[in-house]
User: Which sequence fits this backbone?
């Protein structure tokens, strides 16, 4: 393991900060930041703003111009070695006379995957890998999930009262949470390549699942609906606004009904009469979805949790007690013992307007001792 | 309204801090603190440690000795004018030659209720009332509730997962929360004159409801059980440990069964076949209970909430999702619309060990618009 200097940490921290600027725009590409430094001085900065645009290294080299000779380049991800929509960054760094490259993580993307580092080393450059790699992996956990696991990073958004209720028994739920929490959900949508919901929510709420608030450079996520038997109405808002919505089913005999809508019907393998969740996630990864936001009812939310397919939970908790004439957060028939409960590792807690937001990751269950 | 000086605020803040030292011991008396000051200098401090012991003023006068002449006395509650277990503090202040008294609040206790102030003024003393009165009232909300409303301050303690579950469907609930939260509940018990539970919890958990952890000078709260038809077993731990437990019922025909236990059976008015909750609270106030801690199941908790008899909720939230094969926090059949939910004013949120504690007060419901 290389001994990194304080200057190395300072420059990589800055590169990570720059990378984050692409959070609403870089997808399906990873967010990448680059800092060029000579001694204590930063002589060029860059980040990857959008697919087809300059990579972070190219932007930093452009800023540094002819001062890059002899510099150290700090990159949050391995420089590419292949010609994609832009030329290989490894070649550009070599051409500019950079003498050392410090990278946070190797790019798992098959066309890179160590070949960028190999090319740099072959040109005589010093290459140090692994500086602040946890932060760098966290930044691109969606992209890394798609490449490494073949499925998007799955974020489950939920909203409830303090006693875990999401609606009254009659279904009334507007609004459990306040305006600030709803705006925060818009931000989560804008960060995501796709937003997933189920047929029950589509029927009950007729949601648009679009980003209505403005985020700099933000694009609309792909809308995804799970509807086993294509029961959703043609006039549903998410099928009528001219932008594609992906509809997963297990029985597409009613497919023709959706010819005049913007639905793209995809039939997938069934599990218990419903779309196989791993198959759905695999299909979304093949469509370059890095981050999937799930905004679903308790049945689909529970199914994802029981199948261990949720990577992060974002729970908005309203300061209310709603009582027992209500519906709960999740439907989890398989969890019958206290040991079945899902332990969470809380990663963030904060006030969002009148509500409280809890961000958490599923943690390992204690081993069942058996009976 | 008197214009209080910075010195006035400084001394009253100190008096409030001193008063708090009696939190585990002063009951059923109020917590009171007293500071004697001459100019910038504090020449005596006192607080009321326990019933029968010196009042705060007497303790401060003792500390100041003959320097009290011409001093200002800061007291968090009106000095008493009557002879109780100790002589009247108003007389002691006059005798010591104190020239000004600043009090946070008037004592609503009928034997005081302005007579202390009147006596001081009659002796030619300057008396200013109302400095930091919100903090002073908050400190003694239990005592003030008992005197002003004729019922204890009611604190409802609950523990659940993040999705609001308190037990699996089969009743398994040990333990939802961790050791630090359970210790914190011991502290709440030690702060309370009584701890209330219901027959269901008594049957299911056979709790002792005693303070087992050590708090300085702490005493055991009175245990209170609501058991409409006296169905609890004689061998229940809270009836067999030699310390009195109050059992409220509406049908005491089985009273004889408890002759050999430490139960004191009290028959009260019924409402819907159960002990009338206002009647129970009134009886507890008559027994000088200032603060009542409720550690009950979802039915009794829900009944108290529906009856608007809860003053504070303390909710320990464990970092788990327990799912739908579970029991909820409260049973509230009367709340059928979203407008029926109980809005909370959050007064504190903090991590307690592995859990999260939310402290809140019921807030006003938005007015129903009617249908």
Assistant:
């Amino acid at each position: 393991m290389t001994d990194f200097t304080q200057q190395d940490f300072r420059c990589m921290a800055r590169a990570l900060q720059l990378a984050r600027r692409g959070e609403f725009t870089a997808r399906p590409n990873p967010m990448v930041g680059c800092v060029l430094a000579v001694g204590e001085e930063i002589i060029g900065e860059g980040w990857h703003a959008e697919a087809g645009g300059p990579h972070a290294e190219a932007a930093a080299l452009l800023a540094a111009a002819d001062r890059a000779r002899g510099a150290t380049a700090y990159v949050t991800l391995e420089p590419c070695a292949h010609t994609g929509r832009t030329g290989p960054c490894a070649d550009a760094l070599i051409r500019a006379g950079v003498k050392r490259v410090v990278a946070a993580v190797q790019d798992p993307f098959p066309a890179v995957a160590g070949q960028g580092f190999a090319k740099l080393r072959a040109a005589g450059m010093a290459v140090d890998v692994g500086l602040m790699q946890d932060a760098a992996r966290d930044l691109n956990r969606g992209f890394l999930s798609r490449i490494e696991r073949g499925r998007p990073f799955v974020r489950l958004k939920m909203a409830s009262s303090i006693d875990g209720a999401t609606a009254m028994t009659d279904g009334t739920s507007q609004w459990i949470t306040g305006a600030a929490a709803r705006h925060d959900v818009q931000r989560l949508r804008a960060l995501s390549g796709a937003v997933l919901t189920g047929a029950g929510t589509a029927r009950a709420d007729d949601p648009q699942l679009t980003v209505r608030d403005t985020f700099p450079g933000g694009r609309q996520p792909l809308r995804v609906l799970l509807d086993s038997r294509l029961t959703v109405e043609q006039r549903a808002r998410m099928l009528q606004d001219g932008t594609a919505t992906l509809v997963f089913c297990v029985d597409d005999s009613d497919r023709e009904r959706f010819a005049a809508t913007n639905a793209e019907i995809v039939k997938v393998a069934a599990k218990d009469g419903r779309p196989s969740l791993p198959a759905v996630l695999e299909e979304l990864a093949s469509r370059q979805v890095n981050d999937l936001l799930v905004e679903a009812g308790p049945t689909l939310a529970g199914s994802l949790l029981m199948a261990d397919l949720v990577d992060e939970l974002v729970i908005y908790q309203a300061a209310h007690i709603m009582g027992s004439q209500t519906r709960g957060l999740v439907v989890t028939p398989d969890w019958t013992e206290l040991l079945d409960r899902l332990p969470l590792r809380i990663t963030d807690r904060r006030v969002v307007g009148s509500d409280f937001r809890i961000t958490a990751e599923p943690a390992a269950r204690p081993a069942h001792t058996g009976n």
